[in-house]
Design brief:
The protein has 315 residues and is α/β, with parallel strands linked by helices. It has helices at 11-16, 79-90, 116-122, 140-148, 164-169, 176-188, 206-223, 239-245, 254-267, 289-302; strands spanning 31-38, 44-51, 96-100, 128-132, 152-160, 192-199, 227-232, 271-274. It has an 8-stranded mixed sheet with strand order 1-2-3-4-5-6-7-8. The radius of gyration is 19 Å and the shape is globular. It binds iron/sulfur cluster and zinc ion. Iron/sulfur cluster (SF4) is lined by residues 57, 59-61, 64, 66, 102-103, 134, 158, 172.
């Protein structure tokens, strides 16, 4: 591992490497989509995702590019419910809904607490509502929102990695105890949680990337997490591109994602998904990428380890 003491990664260094934000409309989500997901009960069902436009996350994690579609200031009360209402009008009927806000749903400067009631009313017909949050922002606000909700509330939390030194370098401002305590708090209150886990954060070799993603899955399940999502680390936010140029970061290989997904599913400790967005960048071979992606999607949905596809490209 490359542990260059000169590599000073902090808020200022990370933010100074950013490009411009994208223009956003405060009354519209910046995106929405519907995707299939295997539910806790084992059914494969459509899940809607609304990407809410709101104030930027107060944390500045090294690998994060979610700031690109955020505002500098808080949005007005009523803006988030308007965005949800608009997206639900566009979306086909689905049973499960992710409200992702590029930060923490329980950050009062991102989603005003005054809006919780209207949001709860808009989503009352769903079976499940999934929001995301930094562990340090999971507190009684989460229970207040849950108490207004008819659907089951699930919370997605970034664990990122259990490698102690890398977790520090990611500037997540979180300890593993913060993570475990949040998961215990949610579990104690009957709220399911899912963890985002990074595959090959900076400063790790390919094999170290696999090893630490697998240890992170172990840790997440032992903390009480119900579902793990493995995210191959990407560049594109300025800071990561600079690390890549200087040799501190390389994109993980799609085969490592396959290895870690197989490991996670094999544990049978809960659902494990691979993030399959734009996987072509993790493969140097155009011949097998579609087959590899199809296999990962099928493993996500069925939670079984499928036989590797016979590849004519031999790698
Ligand atoms: S806490 Fe999440 S949204 Fe905020 S900077 Fe870190 S990764 Fe990005
Ligand atoms: Zn190939």
């Amino acid at each position: 591992m490359n542990e260059d003491p000169e590599l000073l990664i902090n808020d200022q260094w990370i933010v100074s490497r950013r490009g411009n934000k994208n223009p956003v409309d405060l009354q519209r989500p910046y995106g929405w989509l519907v995707e299939k997901e295997r539910t806790i009960s084992g059914k494969i069902e459509d899940t809607g995702i609304i990407f809410l436009t709101n104030r930027e996350c107060p944390f500045h994690c090294l690998m994060c590019d979610l700031w690109k579609n955020t505002t500098d200031e808080s949005v007005a009360i009523g803006s988030i419910p308007n965005q949800i209402e608009w997206a639900l009008e566009q979306m086909p009927a689905v049973k499960h809904l992710k409200l992702y806000n590029n930060g923490s749903f329980f950050d009062g400067r991102a989603v005003p607490e005054e809006d919780y009631k209207s949001i709860a009313s808009l989503v009352k017909d769903f079976e499940t509502v999934i929001v995301e949050s930094h562990p340090r922002l999971i507190n009684e606000k989460c229970l207040n929102f849950r108490n207004m909700l008819k659907p089951d509330l699930h919370v997605a939390i970034g664990l990122e990695t259990v490698h102690p030194w890398i977790l520090l370098k990611l500037n997540k401002q979180m300890t593993l105890d913060d993570f475990s305590n949040s998961v215990s708090y949610l579990t104690k209150n009957g709220i399911s949680s899912r963890a985002f886990i990074l595959l090959r954060p900076p400063l790790l070799s390919e094999s170290e990337g696999i090893f630490w993603a697998e240890r992170s899955i172990d840790f997440a399940f032992s903390a009480g997490i119900e579902c793990c999502i493995i995210i191959p680390v990407r560049a594109g936010n300025g800071a990561m591109d600079e690390l890549m140029e200087k040799g501190y970061f390389s994109l993980p290989d799609i085969q490592s994602l396959e290895t870690v997904l197989e490991y996670g599913i094999g544990l049978k400790a809960g659902r494990v998904f691979a993030d399959v967005w734009d996987l072509a960048q993790f493969s140097s071979c155009k011949k097998c990428i579609d087959k590899r992606t199809d296999r990962l999607v099928s493993m996500n949905l069925n939670q079984i380890i499928l036989k590797p596809v016979e590849y004519t490209c031999n790698h």
